[in-house]
Design brief:
mainly alpha
Amino acid sequence: MSKRPVPRYDFKEFGAAIKAARTGRRESRKKVCDEMFISPHYLANIENKGQHPSLQIFFELMLRYNILSGVR
């Protein structure tokens, strides 16, 4: 059986919202990464390139910055 064809979701809008919320709170990338136990490179790729985060990290970032209601 072949995989169901599903277009890959573009996370760039979420990444931009995360970065805007983080910088709005004046939190450094290092501070956030230290608290979440992720690498700064990983967070930078999420924020700047729209890298797909793990589901756990995605939810933690959405909750941390209360983003889900503002992104389409």
